[in-house]
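$ ./design --mode recover --in tokens.txt
reading tokens...
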């Protein structure tokens, strides 16, 4: 039987660079794109370059992470120290340093508990700015000439609103179609609120006297666009009185705290918008 020394002597000889390159190929091929759950550690804001560097850790290990500037600006969920997240990205290695990291492409809070903790933290911060204060609330006009609706152009929500408005007190309705869930939804909703406000009184497109921002029910993740700061701030800045109707009666989102009235359902919003 060959000795262990002979077996070792028969192994191919690697240069350091060749072995490092081979390990890089093996690791990146085996773990190209991954979803990685961990707690953000060492995040101190964006670097001067615009990139962000931190670690993801659990009770057993940690892995370095980077978010490039362009990706960081597009992230719906920005990194926060101590937040447990699920990161999606690509594993890359540095042969010259024998190290590896995850290049993050998207982030989301990990589990309902993390979503709720983030929601409460954001709610406290916005409340401290006075965005939810009662003195900022505007009265809903008794007899609006035009009703503006920000919601998905398809599905039960828009049908329910239009039918209820028609049944109670027919008024001209302008619908600004938006996505109400997923990437880009918050930006579209905020742009729609601002777009209605930008319409000049007496212009070729009638400016609404009241706005309804609505969507149907769903999980906290489904409704998250209505918790984004862009939407909350657009609602706060609206000069047109705004009724929020997001989810079911038991659902609460941050737009509900900043809106002038909160309806339990989209149908209820239509009832608030026009008299019997």
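writing sequence...
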């Amino acid at each position: 039987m060959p000795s262990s020394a002979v077996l070792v002597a028969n192994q191919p000889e690697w240069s350091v660079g060749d072995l490092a390159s081979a390990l890089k190929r093996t690791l990146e091929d085996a773990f190209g794109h991954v979803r990685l759950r961990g707690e953000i550690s060492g995040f101190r804001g964006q670097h001067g370059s615009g990139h962000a560097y931190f670690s993801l850790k659990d009770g057993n290990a940690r892995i370095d992470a980077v978010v490039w500037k362009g990706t960081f600006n597009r992230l719906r969920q920005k990194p926060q120290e101590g937040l447990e997240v699920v990161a999606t990205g690509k594993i890359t290695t540095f042969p010259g340093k024998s190290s590896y990291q995850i290049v993050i492409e998207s982030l989301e809070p990990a589990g309902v508990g993390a979503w709720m903790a983030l929601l409460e933290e954001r709610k406290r911060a916005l409340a401290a700015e006075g965005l939810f204060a009662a003195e900022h609330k505007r009265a809903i006009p008794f007899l609006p000439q035009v009703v503006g609706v920000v919601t998905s152009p398809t599905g039960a929500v828009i049908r329910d609103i239009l039918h209820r408005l028609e049944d109670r007190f027919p008024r001209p309705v302008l619908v600004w179609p938006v996505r109400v869930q997923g990437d880009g939804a918050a930006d579209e909703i905020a742009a729609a609120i601002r777009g209605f406000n930008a319409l000049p009184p007496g212009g070729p497109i009638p400016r609404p006297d009241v706005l309804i921002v609505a969507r149907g029910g769903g999980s906290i993740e489904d409704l998250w666009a209505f918790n984004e700061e862009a939407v909350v701030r657009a609602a706060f800045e609206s000069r047109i009185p705004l009724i929020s109707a997001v989810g079911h009666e038991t659902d609460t989102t941050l737009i509900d705290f900043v809106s002038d009235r909160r309806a339990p359902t989209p149908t209820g919003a239509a009832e608030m918008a026009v008299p019997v």
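exit 0
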